[in-house]
Amino acid sequence: MTQTIARRFQISTLAAHLVLIGFTLLALAPTLLVVMNSFKPRKEIFGAPLALPSFETITLIGYDTVLKRGDILHYFQNSLIVTVCALFFIILFGAMAAFALSEYRFPGNRLIGLFLVMGIMVPIRLGTVGILKMMVSLGLANTLFALILVYTAQGLPMAVFVMSEFMRQVSDDLKNAARVDGLSEYTILFRLVLPVVRPAIATIAVFTMVPIWNDLWFPLVLAPGESTRTMTLGAQSFIGQFITDWNAVLAALTLAIVPMLILYLMFSRQLIRGITAGAVK
Amino acid sequence: MATVEIKNVRKSYGPVEAIKGIDIAVQDGEFLVLLGPSGCGKSTLLRMVAGLESITGGQVVIGGRVVNDLDPKDRDIAMVFQNYALYPHMSVFDNMAYGLKIRGVPKPEIETRVAKAAEILELGRFLTRRPSQLSGGQRQRVAMGRAIVREPAAFLFDEPLSNLDAKLRTQMRIEIKRLQDRLGITSLYVTHDQVEAMTLADRILVMNHGVAEQIGTPLEVYQRPASLFVAGFIGSPPMNVLDGVIDASGQGVVMPGGALLPLPRPRPDDANRPVKLGIRPEHLTISDGLAASPILVELVEALGADTVVYGRLPDGESLLIRMAGLPSCTEGDQLSVAPQPGALHLFDAAHGRRLAD
């Protein structure tokens, strides 16, 4: 009896793992294909796109092209400035708004909360034309600041939503003890509540940073100029109307993955706690 | 060192009145316990004294200063919370020192004060640990240490022992009592546990539905409960409450079963008045005579040191009796019990207030 249960358990575990492995392969395949082919010469990319680069075929020509066009580092820098600044503002303002919504009773509290949640449902791209007009009249077109503003607006609703939920779970006694101890509301938020909701911050950081880094739309619309090009937009410059340097495109895309991977690894331990926090408690 | 005066304090949440005007002056160094069932407003009252809830009406005066519009930090109070409320990412030392640091107390002074508090509370070995590495009792001691180092005018305790297990609770109760005796700081202590209230308090404020039912020393509250509510709330097992009528001569009370209980003093003015009769389970004894009522024993709880008998009167009312020692009866027995002379509490049948003795 116990044996059959044990065996059944094994079989179901196996099945679950098969499904998960299958999904992982499916999700990773395109990325893997990009990385693999970035190390192959053009002929091989089209001749045998699924083959691994071998000793004879391996080449760094793509990376060579990309790095020789010196501006790629500049694009990298642009992307990094935009992503990090936007992330900083999202977490700063998101935390402040979330704290106000979760901590204070004031008229319109729920209404403001609802308004912010609506921001999650309505894609910001619908307002592109308006945003562009606004940025032009503010003289912000072709600046990184324009991108930072737009991405901050794009990320805030989700950040406020997630963080206010987490902050509601922080014990009232803790905040009140701090008030009696003489901490200001700002100190309570930044020194006490934020460290406690660190998993939420990691979750938000990962979920907002990836779309910002990968975005092509707003850089193309708001900051297509040479000096403000981001990495994703920069990679496009290897795609021509008639000739496309696939080696360079794939190499640029591979390079673009690296910083995200590093940031993800930094946040991931906290992230898992953030995702599972509600489930375990 | 200071007095805490609560003058006609009220609290409303919209149309709902949670605190309906409480008046009490806590003396310098006094230990006042706010006791009541959950939802009676005792925590709200404490939080109003702390400044964590706004005050709808009346005044809170700490050390002769009206503090209604002051922030908690400016009221010169320290508070201990039910779930400890320690800063989770700081060491025990920093937890105690942080409030002082915020107030700009010089560093050497902080170190002396924390060291002194740690010595009193026997926390010396744990100063570098995080709260998560401590047991419940140790955490609560750190919370008290955080209050002590501030050297405030008053301590406020909000059910500080509720999260501890029974054994630790008894131990911490004694520690709190010793600590308060030693420091002599005015304390307000909220609890729903009558044992804590009886053992810790200089005076108890019994609250129900936002009003003060009675203010008095623990023994006053036990011996002369001011209302049926207090009578039922203080004492375990609770007081028996029966219907009765004062007889025509005003010499005794007639119970529904016909038993005649003599009154401590004659009440000719109250002749034929229906009353509620309170008798504590420990004041009933097995005896015969005019005052005795027959009961059927339904359940016997042997607690070792004493025995609780659940009996039923002929008219169906239940009656609790607490006897010293091991049980002398079993379920199904017929007993005859009577209250000890002078152990009767009389309450008005309509509004439940105690009749004047």
Automatic annotation (TrEMBL), chain A:
Bilayer topology term: Multi-pass membrane protein
The keyword Cell membrane is annotated on this UniProt entry: yes
GO BP, sorted A to Z: transmembrane transport
Compartments, record wording: Cell inner membrane; Cell membrane
Keyword Cytoplasm: no
CDD domains reported for this sequence: TM_PBP2
PANTHER family attached to this UniProt entry: ABC TRANSPORTER PERMEASE PROTEIN MG189-RELATED-RELATED, SN-GLYCEROL-3-PHOSPHATE TRANSPORT SYSTEM PERMEASE PROTEIN UGPE
Subunit organization: The complex is composed of two ATP-binding proteins (UgpC), two transmembrane proteins (UgpA and UgpE) and a solute-binding protein (UgpB).
Domain called ABC transmembrane type-1: residue spans: 76-267
Name of the encoding gene: ugpE
Protein's job: Part of the ABC transporter complex UgpBAEC involved in sn-glycerol-3-phosphate (G3P) import. Probably responsible for the translocation of the substrate across the membrane.
InterPro entries per UniProt: MetI-like (IPR000515), MetI-like_sf (IPR035906)
Family under the similarity heading: Belongs to the binding-protein-dependent transport system permease family.
Keyword list, A-Z: Cell inner membrane, Cell membrane, Membrane, Transmembrane, Transmembrane helix, Transport
Gene Ontology cellular component list: plasma membrane
Chain segments annotated as coiled-coil in the UniProt record: none
Organism field: Azospirillum cavernae
Protein name as catalogued: sn-glycerol-3-phosphate transport system permease protein UgpE
Main location: membrane
Transmembrane segments: 14-33, 45-63, 75-99, 111-132, 144-167, 188-213, 246-267
Automatic annotation (TrEMBL), chain B:
Record domain ABC transporter: where: 4-234
This protein's name: sn-glycerol-3-phosphate import ATP-binding protein UgpC
InterPro entries: AAA+_ATPase, ABC_transporter-like_ATP-bd, ABC_transporter-like_CS, ABC_transpr_MalK-like, ABC_transpr_MalK/UgpC-like, Mo/tungstate-bd_C_term_dom, NA-bd_OB-fold, OB_MalK-like
Similarity section: Belongs to the ABC transporter superfamily.
Record carries keyword Transport: yes
GO biological process: carbohydrate transport; glycerol-3-phosphate transmembrane transport; glycerophosphodiester transmembrane transport
Domain of life per record: Bacteria
An example Gene Ontology CC term for this record: ATP-binding cassette (ABC) transporter complex, substrate-binding subunit-containing
Species lineage: Bacteria, Pseudomonadati, Pseudomonadota, Alphaproteobacteria, Rhodospirillales
Keyword field: ATP-binding, Cell inner membrane, Cell membrane, Membrane, Nucleotide-binding, Sugar transport, Translocase, Transport
Organism name: Azospirillum cavernae
PROSITE patterns: ABC_TRANSPORTER_1, ABC_TRANSPORTER_2
GO molecular-function terms, A-Z: ABC-type transporter activity; ATP binding; ATP hydrolysis activity
Keyword Transport: yes
